[in-house]
Amino acid sequence: MADTASADQQAPPRYKRVVLKLSGEVLMGDGEFGIDVDTVTRLCTELVGVHGSGVELAVVIGGGNIFRGVSGSASSGIDRASADYMGMLATIMNAIALQSGVERLGATARVLSALHIKELAEPYIRRRAVRHLEKGRIVIFAAGTGNPYFTTDTAASLRAMEIQADVVLKGTKVDGVYSADPVREPTAHRYECLSFSEALSQNLGVMDATALSLCRSNNMDIVVFDVTKPGNMMRAIKGEPVGTLVQEEASNA
């Protein structure tokens, strides 16, 4: 048994180049808003561990822990485009927090922003992002696509295509995709595998429709998993069944 467990721990990553999508809410920990330092430290420890296994790692971070464009627009009367730009600024704050956490642990990270704030981040340039990955740096993409009306889910899908990643990992607070809200429906079924068509037609909330369609068109797998559980990030990258795999053809389970 010990030899088997040791072999599992040493199993090589299934994916060589990964885009990890993290919602801003993941950074809150148990709080209602903002950035929880302990949570950021734990996440960065896992990021550095994954990076140390030889994976080329890029992160797309959301900003919902600070400001969410759609709900902010609806509740405050701010026009949608302005609210979305405010949300992009929130993602830059989160990206800087992740960069700081990663570098405290001895790894190197670069923030590439779709909005130009040269004092804090490099401008997003595709070839520069790829070069950073090839040089062994963790890349953190901020400010979404740089355009209002597009989510950070879409940004993650777009960046994955641009840097030719092997997979999009979506780290959430839920252990996969369910047939219904598991909090409201205790009998909801968790899917191990889904096709893009099933995810879109059933509106299962994997990602927004634009992001899903982009991944489907480019045959880019998505893995949805619980990033709050220690070790799950590495398990997902090794291809272990820790959440829900969304791909072009899937056997619904």
Break the fold down into its secondary structure elements and pairings:
Elements: H1 2-9, E1 17-22, H2 37-52, E2 56-61, H3 69-76, H4 80-104, E3 109-113, E4 122-123, H5 126-134, E5 138-142, H6 152-162, E6 167-172, E7 177-178, E8 190-191, E9 193-195, H7 196-201, H8 209-217, E10 222-226, H9 232-237, E11 243-247
Parallel strand pairs: 1-2, 1-6, 2-5, 3-4, 3-5, 6-10, 9-11
Antiparallel strand pairs: 7-8, 10-11
Helix pairs in contact: 2-4, 3-4, 6-8
Helical content stands at 25-40%
CATH class of the largest domain: Alpha Beta
Q: CATH topology of the largest domain, what is it called?
A: Carbamate kinase
* Overall pLDDT confidence: 90
Helical stretch tally: 9
What's the end-to-end separation, in Å? 29 Å
Structural class: alpha/beta
**CATH H-level name of the largest domain... which superfamily?**
Acetylglutamate kinase-like
Side-by-side strand order of the widest sheet: 4-3-5-2-1-6-10-11-9
Q: Low-confidence parts, pLDDT < 50 over ≥5 residues?
A: 4-8
Share of residues in strands: 15-25%
Count of β-strands: 11
- Biggest pleated-sheet summary: 9 strands, mixed
The value of Rg in angstroms is: 18 Å
> What is the chain-wise order of helices and strands?
HEHEHHEEHEHEEEEHHEHE
Structural commentary:
- There is one protein chain.
- With 253 residues, the chain is an alpha/beta fold.
- The chain folds into two domains: 145 residues, 3-Layer(aba) Sandwich (Carbamate kinase), CATH 3.40.1160; 82 residues, Acetylglutamate kinase-like (Carbamate kinase, 3-Layer(aba) Sandwich).
- The protein contains nine helices and eleven strands.
- Strands 4-3-5-2-1-6-10-11-9 form a nine-stranded mixed sheet, with helices on both faces.
- It is globular.
- It starts with a helix and ends in a 6-residue tail after the last strand.
- About 2% of the residues have low confidence.
